Amino acid sequence: MRITGISTHVAGTPWRNLTFVQVHTDEGLVGVGEARMLNHTDALIGYLAEAEVNHIKGSDPFDMEDLVHRMKYGDYGRAGEIVMSGIACVEMACWDIVGKALGQPVWRLLGGKVRERIKAYANGWYTVERTPEAFHEAARKVVEHGYQALKFDPFGTGTMELDHAETMRSVSLVEAVRDAIGEEAELLVEMHGRFSPATAIRLAGLLAPFKPSWLEEPCPPENLKALAKVSAHTDLPIATGERIHDRFEFRELFELQAVDVIQPDISHIGGIAETRKLAATAETHYVMVAPHNVGGPVLTAANLHLAACTSNFKIQEHFNDFADSAIKGVAPGLPEVVDGYFTLPEAPGLGVELDLDALAAFPRQRANFNLFADNWHLRDPARTK
Predict the structure, then answer these.
(1) Mean model confidence pLDDT for the chain
(2) Which alpha helices (H) appear in the chain, and where do they start and end?
(3) Which parts form a coiled-coil structure per UniProt (predicted)?
(4) 3-state class of 259 per DSSP?
(5) Does the active-site annotation cover 136?
(6) DSSP per-residue string spanning 31-87
(7) Is 292 a catalytic residue?
């Protein structure tokens, strides 16, 4: 079997564009991959057009290790977010092809399941006014939907420091959410790399009474020793990793013992097998894996196959029950979240099929998502400034 070419398709929403890549073969099998690029969609599509000629076309989709190696190293330059995301789209599409060719779901080809269902947490649910009352009501709807875990960033436009008034406001939002979901549900606090170590440590102390399951990206991702300082000064678990784009770059993070949960994004770190290798390394450091996922149904499906066979998997992020839920129709076949869990995909390959007619209902937009703009959490550019 040989790859004859690829095609790219973009589904748009006001706050994110999702790029779907179809990999076509000479035996008629077509696989699909997906990435969400934050304001870099054109760059991804441009890279894929060149990679199709230089590396992809003519390759055997079963020889993924070789294809990934050539795409990563064959252009000599150091691979960053754009290249690793392009690799990921093609690699997960190849897994889809191989699964279809063999009549097996991808998780069986990765070693088989270690769990019967996959715990999920909701994100994208707090598109409401930034008040305790509004956050309380929105969080209550999440648990009514069946979720047993949710994540949110309560810190507004916080950058490096947070003044007293904003600190108290942010803490009040966390308190309101904990009250809404009860003591049994998991509360995950996102910091989006906003703060200096001193500020993050201070906030960790204020949030500890609400028992968050982790603090995510308390510091900007460029300085891992700063993150280690935060980790050393709080008992709360630290999670990070969505903006690290090569599994080799996690080495220092493990050496510093600065993290308890890593959050690689399958679509930004080179695909399913690369994330699987990283998870195995994390396991040797007693670190859990909770993949970052801001994608649509194809990327979510890829995450479920990884989770099914990864022993140190913790929990799976999911946006699409609360943010742009109609986007799920672009690639039908993904299991729904029931009582807080996904069931395992059972269809061959990734178990989802791209519907180009459905995708046409989501024309590409000039999505401009800025986490430091006022009202960014509304995910509505018309209401940010």
Answers:
(1) 96
(2) 41-51, 64-73, 81-102, 106-109, 132-144, 164-181, 197-207, 224-232, 250-255, 272-284, 297-308, 356-359
(3) none
(4) coil
(5) no
(6) EEEEEE-SS-HHHHHHHHHHHIIIIITT--TT-HHHHHHHHHHTT-SPP-HHHHHHH
(7) yes
Q: Are residues 113 and 88 in the same domain?
A: no
9, 24, 136, 292: the catalytic one is 292
Strand, coil or helix: what is 285?
Answer: coil
Domain containing 228 — which CATH number? 3.20.20.120
Catalytic residue among 9, 55, 136, 192: 192
The 10s digit of each residue's pLDDT in 229-273 is 999 999 999 999 999 999 999 999 999 999 999 999 999 999 999
Instruction: Name the token pair of 23.
Output: 């990999």
Kindly report whether the global pTM for this prediction surpasses the value 0.90. Answer: yes
Residue at which a domain ends, from 103, 132, 167: 103
Q: Whose CA is closest to 122, among 187, 211, 51?
A: 187
Q: Which two tokens stand for residue 236?
A: 């709360």
* CA 167 to the chain's CA centroid: 27
- Rounded percentage of the chain residues whose pLDDT exceeds 90: 94
